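INTERNAL AUDIT FORM
Audit reference: QA-55
Scope: verify that the stored structure record matches its stored sequence.
Auditor: D.O.
Record contents follow.
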Amino acid sequence: MSTADGTAPRGSAPDPTGAAATGPATTGPAPGTARTPSAVDAIAEQWVTTLADLDPTVATWIGIPGRHDEYADQSPEGHARMMDAARATIAQLDAAASIADAGGAAPLDDVDRITVADLRADLQLSVESSEAGLYTRDLNVIASPAQNLRDILDLMPTATADDWSDIAGRLRSMPTAIDGYIETLRLGIRGGTTPARRQVDEVRAQAEKLAAADGFFPGFVADPTLDDGTGVPRSLAADLEAGAAASTAAYGTLAVFLADELMPAATDHDAVGRDAYALHSRGFLGATIDLDETYEWGIEELRRMTDEQEAIARAISGGGSVADAIRILDTDPARMLHGTDELQRWMQQLSDTAVRELAGTHFDIPEPLTHLECLIAPTQEGGIYYTSPSDDFSRPGRMWWSVPPGVTEFGTWREATTVYHEGIPGHHLQLGQAVYNRAKLNTWRRQLAGTSGHAEGWALYAERLMQELGYLDDPGDRLGMLDGQRMRAARVVLDIGVHLGKPRLDGTGSWDFDYAFEFMKANVNMNEPSLRFEVNRYFGWPGQAPSYKVGQRIWEQLRDDVRASQGAAFDPREFHRRALDIGGVGLDTLRAALRA
């Protein structure tokens, strides 16, 4: 449910012990008088209800009541019901807009116009992707049902016996969900729309790991405790154990299917092609872009990031290379943290300082958003991610660091920019602001709308902004920021190059896995197993990786356009407030709203 460098879905999260942020109350926009819900708001709210009914994990995701012990119907029939509901909602939105335009109802205000534009675009894309059969080949190494069915368990609360009962029920439901997913992939086999062989083999290995006797599920329920420190009732413990066994067996069934049925039918072609890629790109950006122009821009942006990073590296190392600078930084005791307790305290302190110093100066930070918890994640997968506050802020926004087993030392020079990316002024301000703005935004706008390009583009924009404001003046911290920016630029080039069959940069043929791996190896400071997983991710999840850097580009273009139109009257704090008040939307919607 989360990516190695992205945000987890907006919703609940595990609750390991961690210190709460305690920044001062700061000035910011008050919630104001609640907006009277409109006909369009009612349609959007009904869509959230429909989603939570058809896919109960959505209720878990955003922290609303629902059937938290169930999964969605993963079969072709379940998908068809979801698409029928999407088409019906499109018709309702069109009718509401048509009636308003004809003078038969109150005119749509700015909030309604944004809701209609963005929700309709999102639903229409779902329909087009369905008609292209993309759901029948939905399998990759990081964000397909093969992972999502397990990952939602990480977001389920465990405070009470009822919480654990929901977990037991969901574990018991796993075999039905896996069976439905297999039927959908079989539909793809019959229709000749199958995932790449490389992805099938990698996911088969993941499924076999989950199907092992000592895999995730038995450990997950081995010691279920409540918030008061007591254990769950014996009968519930037995239900959890049975559910874990059922889930383990279900992933065994999936592994066998992938090896015996899907692998022989899988395509040898990693590239999805221009038409499918355009749909994927729209989904992750909420915008239609010129893919060929973006590819050429990516090449130039990578060159610019490389030159900037190498200049900083020479300053750090006295004329040496990036590798030389990294060796110096990695052996600097002043930049090292020892143990996860020290890591957690450092994250919290850096975050609290940013909140305290930015609030009321460069950003409006509402009081509830001054509380950001920086925590060590209960998982050990690697990566840092953010989860949004609950709708009533009873659960604050949280930044999680998932520390792999055996890792006990951490270099601050790499991660100062990550704290700003995930916290303030990055995801926490962006996503938390949408939750806070409940007086204007319906539940869909607050909790479900938005794209990777909007969210991750803003977070990269925030990193660069923190450099401009002087928070990354330290050469090591700035090198860490540029290390990530260079990686994101390289991913634009690789992702479009692979999936559109572009010529290699050296002119020796088309992009393939080996060339892509060597290309990333030359541009990313990452160990080989992690790098191989990353390249597999790009090959199987087209359009997602470029959305970060392309989203940053669009955010910066929007700011520059507004600055040019306003001239001396331009106020960056007001621009940020206005943009974030809109909530998470597609970037085409954001562009239209800010230019209006």
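Auditor finding: record pair retrieved intact. Confidence is low (pLDDT under 50) at residues 6-32.
Action required: none
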